Amino acid sequence: MNKLALKMLLGDRGKYLGIVSGIALASLIMIQQPGIMLSILSRTYSFITDIPLPDLWVMDPKVQFIDDMKPMLDTELYRVRGVPGVEWAVPLYKGSQRVRLANGETVNSNLIGFDDATLIGAPGELLAGSLADLTRPDAVIVDEAGAKGRLAGPGGGASLPLTVGTVIEINEHRAEVVGIARAAPTFQSMPILYTTYSRAKAYSLNERKLLSFVLAKAKPGEDPQAVARRITEDTGLAAYTADDFKRKSLDYFLKNTGILMNFGFMVIVGFVVGTAVTGQIFYNFTLDNLRHFGVFKAMGATDRVLLRMILLQALLVGFVGFGLGAGLSALFAVASSGGGGPGLQLSWQLLLGSGSAVLLICLMAAFFSLRKVFRLEPATVFKG
User: Fold this and answer.
1) How far apart are CA 27 and CA 21, in angstroms?
2) In sequence order, what DSSP letters do the residues of 254-301 get, joined into one string?
3) What pTM does this model have?
4) Is 166 helix (H, G, I), strand (E, B) or coil?
5) Which of 77, 122, 214, 345 is most buried, most CB within 10 Å of its CB?
6) E strand or H helix at 244
7) pLDDT tens, 231-264?
């Protein structure tokens, strides 16, 4: 009977392709839209991810997310270092500065200033140049996306990427590129410039408070959460573990932007369209084959056998349609990776969730078809 069920399904190529196309479209929407949303949301805390060494991020208590700069006095660094349980603490500057290119254009960029002595906070992967060159006067490192994108200079018909040795101007101060680094894209997609903390202060002379964060490490055997509470009690500053600070930044964007609502609406549209298209075509397919099911019932086929036949048909089209949708999503993820815009972030949780939604669509389509088949009287098939 299973072979007959498959023969009925594959014999009607028009409806078979229609059902598969509907499920593939629904799968594509339900995978692609959340995948793009996850990629965008991961950028809200990518800067924290890029600095894995410290256990704790210390900041002004009013800071709401990673790009919400509320600078502190440099003396706060020494107060954090004096808290019991802190092994070391280093300064970190993070701010926005104007970069003037050779053609006179200005580009707003993120300037990161890390500890001069330890270089904690420096980019982890350099594509060109060396961290040791940061000891040279006016030295900065530029992220790869910025060097190839918004900071690329005019070069005839095409833009020329920044390279090691290029001289630029930051806030009316000379800067020489000594390295190109790979960094995770940020939510604002601004170029990132790295230099030492003291040089970052020199580029930002118009600001009185320049200490954006204090990066701290808990002593061996100390619970970072307990050290964070101790820092808050002793200094009045906010202190979070890296995971807590990521969660705080992510929560801010989810609560204060329409990202979740917009992408969630598209996922619902995909589910509704998939259910409506697939259910309607599958139901019509069953109606067109009622005479076959009537003959099977007249020959003694039980409801259980008919249930198995229709479920087999529904699950087959669901499996093929979901495979096509997931495959197209994977191709999109590969094509969009490495670009400056948001990509598509695939995960097994996302595939499991979308696969479960497709299974629900197939079961709903099978349910309405089964009701018609179970109520069918075999004698009506032979009338007329």
Assistant:
1) 10
2) HHHSSHHHHHHHHHHHHHHHHHHHHHHHHHHHHHHTHHHHHHHHHTT-
3) 0.73
4) coil
5) 214
6) helix 242-256
7) 999 999 999 999 999 999 988 888 887 777 777 7
